[in-house]
Specification:
The protein is an alpha/beta fold. It has one domain: TTHA1013-like (TTHA1013/TTHA0281-like, 2-Layer Sandwich), CATH 3.30.2390. Helices cover about 30% and strands about 35% of the residues. Strands 1, 2, 3, 4 and 5 form a 5-stranded mixed beta sheet that branches. The longest helix is centred in the C-terminal third of the chain and has 20 residues. The chain is elongated. The N and C termini lie far apart (about 35 Å). It comes from Pelistega suis.
Length: about 90
């Protein structure tokens, strides 16, 4: 299976050809707000927060699907990869 990272050159074309997309997601814990926050350095618009990790993962996956659909105007294969997790 061919994987290609969102944000790399020609990622939209590879997605339309059926390649599985890899999306880097960075997660941190905001102690002041008592929530986990997830963003992506290469998928613009991905900002998700939730009170627990299980809810966060669900929100991340649905948000990625929605953002990619809006960007490409079609359903694509996406695989989420976590790049970092900080409790700072």
């Amino acid at each position: 299976m061919f994987k290609y990272r969102v944000g790399f050159p020609f990622w939209r074309e590879f997605a339309r050809m059926g390649a599985t997309l890899s999306v880097i997601v960075e997660v941190l814990y905001d102690e002041e707000a008592n929530v986990f926050v997830a963003t992506s350095p290469n998928l613009h618009g991905l900002v998700v927060e939730a009170q627990d990790v299980k809810a966060l993962l669900s929100e991340i996956n649905s948000s990625i699907d929605e953002l990619l659909y809006e960007e490409l105007h079609c359903k694509v294969n996406a695989q989420t990869t976590f790049a970092g997790f900080s409790l700072a």
